[in-house]
Amino acid sequence: MRQIALKVSAGLNLLLNWLLILAMALLVLDVVWGVFTRYIVGEQANWTEELARFLLVWVAMLGGAVAFGTKGHLGVDYFVGKFDPSIRKIVALLGHVVVLFFAMTIFVLGGIRMVHDAFAMEQTTPALGWRMGYIYMVLPLAGCFMVLFTIENLIRTLRPSADPLQRSDSVEQVN
To answer: Where does the Tripartite ATP-independent periplasmic transporters DctQ component domain lie (predicted)?
Structure first.
């Protein structure tokens, strides 16, 4: 069961990475087109700035989820590293529970409400004419990835793998 969960997690991480690569490529092309139309054509295409802003938000939110999943996010564990291993494990578990609560309430539930409200109010973007609910969908989507990665990290903290090739966190590497 654990191997299946790890394969699903790896697959989701790969999908998320490719989605980010695509979004970054679109962002670069959009900005280059905006610069080209502004300085070469003489008048910037009115949609390029808005699209760049929305793509940047999506890249930032999904990139944060990827960084969280690969444990590449900022963490200050200097003092935690000084604790006894059993205390480190408790601190790591507490951290996972706090992140799980935050991701569920703010990102997933709050994001779903925000998407729902944006669709209900029929908000649209000024230049592109897109419904804002689609733009806001990045909140619950990134939140779902954060919840899945947090559950995975929580399981790894509770049951450390004997496989040395599995990723680990210095704080959570306690037996």
So the answer is: 28-159
In this prediction, residues 159-170 reach a mean pLDDT of 54
pLDDT in tens, 16-58: 999 999 999 999 999 999 999 999 999 988 899 999 999 999 9
**Helical H runs in the chain?**
2-36, 48-69, 85-102, 110-120, 132-136, 138-158
Q: Which of 128, 135, 129 is nearest to 114 (CA)?
A: 135
**Domain ranges (residues) in the chain:** 2-158
Quote the tokens at residue 30: 């959009």
In terms of Cα–Cα distance, which of 141, 132, 129, 120 is closest to 59?
141
The pLDDT > 90 percentage for the chain reads 57
Answering whether pTM is above 0.85, one says no
Residue 68 C-alpha from the chain's centroid: 7
DSSP 60-92: HHHHHHHHHHTT-S----TTGGGS-HHHHHHHH
